Amino acid sequence: MPSSAEDTPTPDVICREDNRVGLVLLNRPKALNALSLEMVRAMETHFHKWAKNPHIYGVIQRAHDDGPFCAGGDVKAIYKMRDTDKDAGIRFYRDEYQHNWTLQRFIKPTVSLINGVCMGGGVGISVHGTHRVAAEGYKLAMPETAIGLFPDIGASHVLPQLPGRIGLYMGLTGAVIGAADGYRLGLATHCISADKFDLIQAAVREAEPIDPVLDGLHEDPGEGELTRLRPAIDRCFAPGSVEDIIARLEKETGETADWGRETAATLRAHSPTSLKLTLRLYEEGARLNSLKESLKLEFRCAVRCLRGHDHYEGVRAKMVDKDNNPQWDPARLEDVSDATIDAYLAPLDDVPELELEDHWTLVE
């Protein structure tokens, strides 16, 4: 079958075929490849097409210029439309989570080549695929609690699967990790320098078995920072309330005393509602052990966040006005009740629930 140069209508993501490979080239560098609704829909359309095309061996996802992979969803756009199109955010999260589910069910190799920022929605389009290659500039985080949201894209399913309490630590703090930690945690499957990305793409183009290719190029990155911090993380982020976690952090002594105080200060600066919601979703995700059910629960919470105060205030303070002085409401952890968090997770009454299709197959 000849290769096709047909691109998607949007220039922000280029989806095309080259012999046996489907290519997803994120092409919005000025926005750090933040995902718009149009980008998500374009990727979803092409993954469905590639799933049913027997000539396509696998998919490569990468930044078009090999810069930052993806900084997440375009929350600034949602913020700007808050008064003119109140359902814009709901449409975005519904389609984004559907695409996360599609990626999890896509049975062909999906190789994300990551060099630079991979946050939020960028984690979502990569972590549910089969292979995630971390290059030297790899920086992964789920920083949503700093902008009045919560780690979504199925993070409530992914984070509880990480060793010990590291997933909760990452979700609450938004800590940025490098390639070594990403590999040790399984968030990256291989560590390969960015100058080998074209070689990997060429191999998939010719339908070479991908595992031997990646295994042959992989270079062990050594131990990460979280290996040293693991005992303290497990100790401080043990089961309990967010208030308990902060109290434990502030009581750290010895080599981790400074880390404890700095981490406690980070948590105190984030949205109290987001922190408690993130903890609850982590617990629910561990109990459910189902990406599908976690995404449904996250959608309910996303709808409630879009109708609340803190998400818009966090985006304003961090990304629009950039005064880094969000005025959270409530402003104190003790004022966020269990009943408030229960309401975020309750069934939706005026918006259709997220229905993730699984009665059809991605291959014929």
From TrEMBL:
Q: Which InterPro entries match?
A: ClpP/crotonase-like_dom_sf, ECH_dom, HIBYL-CoA-H
- Reactions catalysed according to its record: 3-hydroxy-2-methylpropanoyl-CoA + H2O = 3-hydroxy-2-methylpropanoate + CoA + H(+)
State if Mitochondrion is listed as a keyword: no
* SUPFAM superfamilies in the record: ClpP/crotonase
Q: Which Pfam families match?
A: ECH_2
Q: One biological process GO term for this chain?
A: L-valine catabolic process
- Please list the residue ranges annotated as the Enoyl-CoA hydratase/isomerase domain: 22-345
UniProt GO MF annotations: 3-hydroxyisobutyryl-CoA hydrolase activity
Q: Which UniProt keywords apply?
A: Hydrolase
The EC number on file is 3.1.2.4
Tell me what this protein is called: 3-hydroxyisobutyryl-CoA hydrolase
